[in-house]
Amino acid sequence: MKTMKYILVTGGVISGVGKGVISSSFGAILKCCGIEVTMIKIDPYINLDAGTFSPYEHGEVYVLDDGGEVDLDLGNYERFLNITLHSQNNITTGKIYQQVINKERHGDYLGKTVQVVPHITDAIQEWVEKVAHKPVSENGKVPEVCIIELGGIVGDIESMAFIEAFRQFQFRVERDNFCVAHVSLVPQPKTTGESKTKPTQTSVRELRGAGLSPDIIVCRSERPITQNVKEKISNFCHVATQQIISVPDLSSVYEVPVFIEKHDMAKFLCHRLQLGIGPLPPMKRYMTPWIELGAKMRHLKDELSVAIVGKYTRLEDSYTSITKALHHAGNKIGYKVNIKFIEASNLEKTMLVDDPASYHSAWRDLCLCDCMVVPGGFGKRGVEGMIEAVRWCRLNDKPFLGICLGFQAAVIEFARNVLGLEDAYSTEVKEDATNPVVIDMPEHNPGAMGGTMRLGKQTTVFKASSADSKIRRLYGNPKEIEERHRHRYEVNPTYIDELEEHGLKFIGVDRNQERMEVLELEGHPYFVAVQFHPEYLSRPMKPSPPFMGLILSAKERLKGYFARGCKLSPREPQSDCYDSEDELNELTVKKINLDKDEDNSSAYSSSSLL
């Protein structure tokens, strides 16, 4: 087994400076060079995981295949590197302390006094070493490089134990196997127009005082910094000028890997960590997917507007995966997606009295959008507004995609306004509802809040009668699919037959055929809702099928897409969408025969990266 190499990414001056995207970009660059990479995110908070957070605290809660509820940065890692991470790839102070306390209760420390040093710091190092060797790629290979992002900023009291652990860790794994990248903000006040380096100097001095010296300094700013500014930072921070990287604000996070690699980052990392990679070819050869993706995004001419009607719209990070999935689909089809966040509660009729200006503004924004997404959420606030928005889409043939709570809102709206059950509701909002069309799942509602929902990758089986379903055809006409879930409530089986008789078809169910997973409305251009979260598995070059359908329908291109066998143009290679299983099997055999004649052994092959 090769010696594991580690890259620690720390932050300075302010949080939210972009460490997650920088870390992901390092990984994407190395993976383009044929190196297996894994990622670890360290969150210094005491919570065991992100599952009980409000989205206003840290943005969205990202869900992994194994059901781990983690920080949204792990979503960036998976999207950039096309890997599947595990809950252990997210370390929190709470997890470390719980592990140490459990050992102490078990008597593993033989009566010794349990302290931050060495017991907590040792536990951190052991956790990192164990997780670093766990395969995360489809090929099952053991990673060669582990990139570790330390949340927060240097100097936070919560981070001290982790900083000390890595101060020791650099000697434990030896210098050639460990390097540090420090991401710092370089303010550029409009009053003077010059770049201020003092905050970066201070944060690097604090990092060095804790025993870690940065090998790379990534300077984040609105505009690129000049060579003079780099030289000043170099003089005060003991880092070579060529190892100071300026990353200004870019139009898309997917432009960052190419931007960083223009500074020969792969060459530096391969030399610094002794990765054993020979001379690299020109960047346009091994970074091709990222170069092409960036070029395509910069040249999008047509635009599309999408309304996200949600509960946490004051912080756009609350819906990071959904916005990314919409952009993935838009880029693939050829549209620049403009997203309009609409606070669901502003659509409610009570706002006509309380705040008529917000009410009319919200409805105006919704009516001007080409399509709508109603995402997940918890609690009663804003649910009535979501129901009103769903009704508007149903009556006006506006393309609609409901996710999780959006799925449940679609069922409630249909039951009220088509079945005539005016008091139809969810027991989450109204426990004593006369017609509870959405009810809780008892085994996933035990009273404790953390980690008790129906979480992670679950199987959805398409009904035999769903052969002509839009969503099934978008997925490639399979018998079943796997998507990630995060919910406590389901459609009440008592009402399913009546709902289907009136045109709301449940075309997908769980493996036991007890819980409804996918619905479509007959006769509507695109009225689709899913209980799972398809946004978590969307990738830049492989968009999520429900989002592809939404964008295509909004531009009246869905019928043509199906007519061409799920191709965007006659010249496009055949996609994964087929009209029948026989056609799929026939083309699969042809592909296997072609693959036998191809040589895919290039060390720099990155066609599967995205």
Structure write-up:
There is one protein chain. The chain is of the alpha/beta class and 610 residues long. The chain folds into 2 domains: 5-296, P-loop containing nucleotide triphosphate hydrolases (Rossmann fold); 301-563, Rossmann fold (3-Layer(aba) Sandwich). Helix content is 37%, strand content 20%. It contains 22 helices and 21 strands. Strands 11-10-12-13-21-20-19-16-17 form a 9-stranded mixed beta sheet, with helices on both faces. A 7-stranded parallel beta sheet has the order 5-2-6-1-7-8-9, with helices on both faces. It has a 3-stranded mixed beta sheet with strand order 14-15-18, covered by helices on one side. Helix 16 (383-395) packs across helix 17 (405-417). Residues 576-610 have low confidence and may be disordered.
